[in-house]
Write a structure and sequence with these properties.
alpha+beta; 8-stranded mixed sheet; Ribosomal_N-acetyltransferase; GNAT family N-acetyltransferase; Acyl_CoA_acyltransferase; GNAT_dom
């Protein structure tokens, strides 16, 4: 059995999900410095051009080559503008299960791009790669990501108490770490039969990105 995902691109009506390349570095740098993404991910802050280059050109390709998962740059079909990223990680090739995380650029929120991109990856994962389980973890106060999980048909399975470290603004404008519960969601192949991808209204800025590096 294969232990790595293929090096591919996935297309929807509005989006192209593809490997990152050097042209994505400026947009990735800008996106990852958004306050909501800083709050709900473990990405470095500030997120520098060097961080973006390292992520796009070293960390993301290594995720696939190592068998741990795969990382997609999500872009608009018409403009080629970077919408966000979708990442499969913590992949278990014996049980055919993996975890999905994502971020969405501030300008792209409210268009349903998060749902559309995650659903596209889920369909590819289940139908082409024959996986049996996709997991999503959202911080307890991250209602936007919880809405995405619900809209794509995920089932809430429970809470991991005190399992995540988010970040919150301080009075002086800095950041401080705060503990958070994580809600665990799952999506199975049969769950997709009832799903129709919503095209608008989903903010979905960030699901928990464990171990960003």
């Amino acid at each position: 059995m294969t232990s790595t995902f293929p090096d591919i691109s996935i297309s929807t009506d509005r989006l192209v999900l593809r490997p990152f390349d050097a042209t994505d570095v400026p947009a990735l740098t800008e996106m990852m410095n958004d306050e909501l993404i800083t709050a709900w991910t473990s990405a470095p802050h500030p997120f520098t051009t060097a961080d973006a280059r390292d992520w796009a050109l070293r960390t993301a390709p290594a995720e696939r080559l190592s068998g741990r998962g795969i990382v997609f740059a999500v872009t608009e079909f018409l403009t080629h503008r970077l919408v966000g990223t979708v990442r499969l990680h913590h992949t278990d090739w014996r049980t055919l299960s993996t975890e999905v995380a994502y971020v969405t650029a501030p300008w792209a929120r409210g268009e349903g791009y998060a749902c559309e991109s995650v659903l596209a990856v889920a369909r590819w994962l289940f139908r082409d790669q024959k996986f049996e389980r996709l997991e999503l973890r959202t911080a307890a106060d991250n209602t936007a990501s919880q809405q995405v999980a619900q809209k794509i048909g995920s089932i809430s399975e429970g809470v991991l108490r005190n399992a995540w470290i988010a970040r919150s603004r301080t009075e002086d404008g800095g950041w401080t770490d705060i503990r958070s519960d994580l809600i665990v969601w799952s999506l199975l192949p049969e769950d997709l039969d009832e799903v129709r991808a919503p095209q608008t209204g989903s903010t979905g800025y960030a699901a928990a990105f464990h171990s960003w590096r």
